[in-house]
Specification:
Layout (H helix, E strand, L loop, with lengths): L3 H14 L4 E10 L9 E5 L4 E3 L5 H11 L15 E5 L3 H6 L7 E8 L3 H12 L3 E7 L5 E6 L6 E2 L3 E6 L4 E5 L3 H12 L3 E5 L3 H4 L8 E3 L3 H8 L5 E5 L4 H12 L5 E4 L3 H14 L4 H5 L1 E2 L11 H16 L10 H12 L1
Parallel strand pairs: 10-11, 10-13, 11-12, 13-14, 14-15
Antiparallel strand pairs: 1-2, 1-5, 2-3, 4-5, 6-7, 6-9, 8-9
Helix pairs in contact: 1-4, 5-11, 7-8
C-alpha cells in the first residue's frame, strides 16, 4: 500500500494528465493545536473528488464549496494563475466552526492545476526511493523538484515553498504464518510496503494478505536484494536461527531504521551471543537489534502481539523515545522480581 502522500500526488498527476482541473492544498504553517501536521496534503478535482486531508473534514468541505463557487462574495480566490494562501481558525468562532482544536490555526497553500509533468518527476524520484524536495514559486506557481540527501523541514517564505517527500516506508518480514499475517495487515494500513520472505513452502502456501509481496528466497539474500535504507524495517519471525540469524546478520549491517526478532528474553540473549561470537558484527551493530520486540500491552493472541510489534516500529519511525519501562523485557523483569 502506498503512503498517503504518494497516493495524493499520483491521483493528482492522473487528473492533470487527463486535462482535468484540480488543486493541491498543503498545510504550510500551524499555530497551537491542529488536526494535521505541516506538510500534510490533499488534492481536489473540479468535479468534487478528494484524496488526502488537511483537517478533520470541515475545512475540506469548505474548500470543496469554495473551489466550486463561480461567482459572488464567497469565492475564496479570484486569481487562479498563482498559488493562494488561506488561513483558518484566526478567531475562536471560526476555529469552532471548522472543528479546529481550541486555539488552533492552520495556514494552507492552494496550487491551481499543477503541471502533470512536474508531478510525474516527483513520483519517478519517489519510486526510485529518493528523498525529494519539491519547490513552488509563490508568484508564478512554477514547481520543480530534485533528489535530496537528508530530509528538511517544510519552509515557506514570501517567494517559495519547499517541502520534502520521502519514499514509502517498507517492512520486510522474515517468516510467514499467522503472526506475520497480522503484522503485515497492520503495516499495510499504516502505509508500509510489505514483503514477506519464507523459503519454507509449508509456511507460506496459505498466505492470505492481499497487498503484501511474497518471496521464497533465502532471507539473507532477500535482505541484501531489498537494499535497506532509513525507511526500511526488518523483523524476523520464524523462531528458526538458521533463517533468522542470517537475515539479521545482513540487516544489522544496513541502514534500516528498525531491526528486530521475536523471542523470549533468554532466546534474545542467546541470539546476541551467537551474533557476537560467530559473525563479524560490531557491538554497535548488535545493539541495533530490538528484542524481545514490541511494547508491553499484556498481549496474548497473535493479533495483540502484532499490535505490540507495530506500535514499537511506528514509535521508532516517528522518532519517539519509548521509555524502557514499556519494553517487554523490562516489564517481565519486574514481574519476576515481584513474584520472587
Amino acid at each position: 500500500m502506498e503512503s498517503l502522500d504518494v497516493r495524493v500526488l499520483r491521483q493528482l498527476q492522473q487528473w492533470r494528465a487527463q486535462g482535468r482541473d484540480a488543486i493541491l492544498v498543503t498545510v504550510v504553517q500551524t499555530w497551537g493545536s491542529s488536526p494535521r501536521p505541516e506538510g500534510s496534503i490533499m488534492a481536489l478535482e473540479k468535479g468534487g473528488a478528494v484524496v488526502g486531508s488537511v483537517s478533520g473534514g470541515c475545512i475540506e468541505d469548505d474548500l470543496i464549496r469554495a473551489y466550486h463557487e463561480t461567482a459572488g462574495a464567497d469565492k475564496r480566490w479570484q486569481d487562479e494563475d498563482r498559488p493562494q494562501l488561506l488561513t483558518y481558525g484566526i478567531s475562536a468562532d471560526e476555529a469552532h466552526r471548522f472543528g479546529l482544536p481550541c486555539g488552533g490555526t492552520i495556514r494552507l497553500l492552494v496550487e491551481f492545476n499543477p503541471c502533470p509533468q512536474a508531478l510525474a518527476q516527483v513520483l519517478t524520484l519517489l519510486e526510485q526511493r529518493h528523498l525529494v524536495q519539491r519547490h513552488v514559486d509563490l508568484h508564478t506557481g512554477r514547481a520543480w523538484s530534485s533528489a535530496a540527501r537528508v530530509p528538511a523541514a517544510l519552509h515557506v517564505s514570501e517567494d517559495c515553498l519547499s517541502v520534502t517527500f520521502g519514499p514509502s516506508y517498507r517492512l520486510l518480514l522474515i517468516g510467514g504464518g499467522q503472526l506475520s499475517e497480522y503484522v503485515a495487515t497492520i503495516a499495510l494500513f499504516n502505509g508500509f510496503d510489505v514483503t514477506v520472505c519464507d523459503p519454507r513452502s509449508e509456511h507460506i502456501q496459505g498466505w492470505s494478505v492481499a497487498g503484501a509481496r511474497v518471496v521464497r528466497g533465502m532471507p539473507d539474500d532477500e535482505v541484501i536484494a531489498c537494499v535497506p535504507d532509513r525507511r526500511t524495517a526488518i523483523v524476523a519471525l520464524t523462531h528458526d536461527p538458521k533463517l533468522d540469524d542470517m537475515a539479521l546478520l545482513e540487516a544489522l549491517k544496513s541502514s534500516a531504521f528498525y531491526v528486530g526478532a521475536i523471542g523470549s528474553r533468554r532466546n534474545n540473549q542467546s541470539r546476541r551471543e551467537r551474533l557476537a561470537e560467530h559473525f563479524d558484527l560490531t557491538p554497535q551493530e548488535i545493539d541495533k537489534l530490538k528484542g524481545p520486540i514490541g511494547l508491553y500491552i499484556g498481549s496474548k493472541t497473535p493479533a495483540e502481539i502484532a499490535v505490540s510489534i507495530m506500535a514499537e516500529i511506528i514509535a521508532v519511525k516517528n522518532g519517539v523515545q519509548v521509555p524502557r519501562e514499556l519494553s517487554v523485557a523490562s516489564v517481565k523483569d519486574r514481574q519476576e522480581q515481584t513474584s520472587a
